[in-house]
Amino acid sequence: MDPESLLFSIFSPAGREDPYHALAELRRIEPVHHSKTLDTYCLTRFTDCQSVLTDPRFLAPDLDWCERELPDWREHPAADFFYSSMLRSNGSVHGRLRRLVAGAFSARRVTALRARVEEITTGLLDRFADATAAGGVADFPELVGYPLPVAVIGELIGVPPADQARFHRLGQDASRLLEPVRTAEDWHGADRAVLALREYLTVLLRERRLRPADDLTSALLAASDAEDLPLTEAELTDTLLLTFVAGFETTTAMLGLTVFALLSHPEQLELVRAQPQLAGAAVEESLRWDTPVQMTERVAAEPVEVGGTRIPQGANVTTVLAAANRDPRRHPDPDSFTVRRPDTRVLSFSAGPHYCLGAALARIEGVALVGQLLSRFPRLALARPPVRRASISLRSLKELALLTNG
Length: 406
Ligand code: HEM
Description:
binds protoporphyrin IX containing FE
């Protein structure tokens, strides 16, 4: 197959199941591939992806990019939110937002959440146990994969449990923004969700201004107020909104993919069950083997040579993180799922200035889940093959039917 057909094959139903053979072949024949159809340079080598993500000459597609590529962006509140957010801003605008959130998202706050993550996981697995008692089949994403990150981010931001189901639904619609291709329906849903979530978060910010609590919202307000130039109301709202949108479907995806990876490699699952201290390594290997965020985009601010190919100024670049993680020059025997793999280094959380702010929290959730799931359910099994979600960037399981008396 030619490089363009290989690239397009990963978006077919079969390619969604397994994009890795096509990506390996693309890496072999044209590791820096210019897709005329997608108008982007696709990178599939670990070192090329890493160097682009950490090189200040490559920018995240921001409002300037939006102006060129999405001229009607002003009609979409979701585009206004997304392309002015930390994830899609650059330079000092990004630095200011990131510094304030990183300060509020401190290691102390994340570590303090660890015990709550374990508790929330236990509660959700109690429900999962009830649903699968007496040979019942339960859908893992519905009972655990979605509610766990929603409850954890809810707790982090300060959204009370009673509001979390609504937050979940709106968050799902807003998360379509993370996809590189959006339909008119995606935009419509995302616009509505962004407006509703902005309204909700504006009220939350107002409440926390009056009565600060021990949460990210109050910490962000305090950090912003201490600045010479505090964040505007809109910046505060959208920053909380981004934290939610960036951290919820991605974590759901990771939890489902990790459980599936372990169940489809029984000898690795038994190894982790016998040595629970390997739960962290299992999550890391799963992030490498089947990463939730398959790709992310950058734009060249000036001409730059990458992997021997000259990328012109203004060109779009797609770092295919899923391919980078399986580059044999970085991880030997990359297609095998090996929990004890030495020196695993993933690009699943990106790299450089936009490195995921929630990586530590996501890992804590993964470790809590793997630890408790394997110790509580010795007969955990797949009820049928999982169903993948039809998305381009996010690799996620829409359905993962499990038995605990298999
Ligand atoms: C397994 C779960 C997760 C994955 C795979 C993931 C992945 C990513 C990736 C790939 C990026 C950077 C995208 C780019 O470079 O263009 C990112 C950024 C970000 N993530 Fe995560 N994420 C996860 C969980 C979380 C969680 C739990 C939170 C928060 C509670 C979070 C908050 C953020 C934020 C705020 C950014 C923007 C950072 C910046 O632009 O400076 N993420 N994430």
